Amino acid sequence: MRNESEIESSYLGQFIPVHYHHNMLMDQNRMHGFKSAIHYAVKPGAKVLELGGGTGVLSWFAAAAASKVYCVEYNPDMVREARKNMALNPNGNKVEVIHADAFDYLPPEPIDVVICEMIHVGMLREKQVQVIESFKQRYLERFGGPLPVFLPEAVLMAVQPMQLEYDFEGFHSPIVQFHQTHVIHPGVVELAAPAVYSLLDFSQPTDTTIAWEGECVAERSGTVNGLRFITKNILAIVQEEGRTIDWLNHYMSLPVATPLEVKAGDVIQLGFAYRAGGSIPSLEASIRVSLAEDMVPKVLPNNTRHA
User: In what residue span(s) does the Methyltransferase domain sit (predicted)?
Assistant: First the structure.
């Protein structure tokens, strides 16, 4: 019998397909957010390391101010593409594209900024947390402190009870759904406000186990048949202006095994547990949704109260 890590490895695959990287280049929100954050975080003359460089675009953003950028990529196809891209763009000569595993690589000198964009909604599938934590340990053993600045600096995650449409031209299928943010999607109803369930600060030790139990108050009546997971990446904290540079992942909604009918004012209890970098089905299987035993008192309309 295969163990969990073997099953997960088979499910996740070795590399992200090349066309996914191309889609990321065309994601304007992602590109603008990272460009702004990198231009803020990378000071003139800085030394920068990118773990998981892909097409090399984030390393190239850093090269505008940095004196040296180490761009580490494990997929040989992407290594070739990144090197080709560096040759096509100004300042590309300051980026050294290195074929290596981000879990093992250390730069030959201390660095100022680490860029690591192995991000999936809920910190699932990709090994963002594990890569950064293992890097911290290797870096401190080799160079001592302080640690470099990490980009993103933190990740804020929330969950939201939803009523979703699972009928497709008469074909019923409760599936995982990804939706663009700030877009109205027919058949998608928000039943309660999002509840924050985790904040990961990459400057601090970060646990790979994410578990949460909490409550939401239904704002309207409906059927909770899915949970929306929201991931806000805090790319850089602009302290002098009291603001952050953020990037919001697409929303991910997972079906609930047993849909729950709710009325406005009901208290919905939610729970789940998963491991950062784990599979989507592992999170889906852990989801628990129920009504709270002690309901929020409901105020009767004036015309139904007894004298």
Answer: 48-134
